[in-house]
Amino acid sequence: MASLKSSICFNSTTAGGAARISSYHRTSGEVHVIVGPMFAGKTTALLRRIKSEGSDGRNVAMIKSSKDTRYAKDSVVTHDGVKFPCWALPNLMSFRQRFGDDAYEKLDVIGIDEAQFFEDLYDFCCTAADLDGKTVIVAGLDGDYLRRSFGSVLDVIPLADTVTKLTARCELCGKKAFFTLRKTEETRTELIGGADVYMPVCRQHYVNGQAVIEATRSVLESRKLKTDTHLEVASVV
Questions:
Q1: Can you cite a GO biological process for this protein (predicted)?
Q2: Which of 30, 53, 105, 114 is catalytic?
Q3: pTM of structure
Q4: Is 162 helix (H, G, I), strand (E, B) or coil?
Q5: pLDDT-derived band of residue 75, with 50, 70 and 90 as boundaries?
Q6: 60 and which of 98, 109, 139, 229 could share a cystine (Cβ 3.0–4.6 Å)?
């Protein structure tokens, strides 16, 4: 996967991409990645960096997935209520067209929140940083509730100038939390929610919590099977 994506990036630069760089006389950009479990302060760190860049006189823009409508449709919002206006998009490659070519050319820094929801994250970062000279700051989950790679966030790490892994505080014991535990029985990978659905946990409580969830699911499935069997018997009688 990585070699294929690298070849895509390389081909872009050797074809029309090289002409674009030459004609604009621009330098390469940067990619910075912020990852961690839920409630680790990823969005807060992203907003802090974006505001700092803006205060330094650089033109900034923020993007989030249109799937995330938890707090606001047109703003990136931290769990403690800090807001920043953004573009809510279904994909990243449409950003330049929607933002406008002239405005995009003047743009210096692009922030991407909840980056795990963008399937075209790698291609966008490659184009924006390598060809367009933008600084791209990516914030997202590195793993899902089963501790598997989530979306394309980890694919971007080979492109990154810096990678920052944040931790939360375990909701059960107060130790450092590296993982996200889902409280519900829903098994979909993409399930957007807050503290009502997820909590940050340490390794011990993640393992223990998963065991409890699996045991509960088995009991519920067993009860459902018995109920269905009882209904079938009753209908026959």
A1: DNA biosynthetic process
A2: 114
A3: 0.77
A4: strand
A5: confident
A6: 109
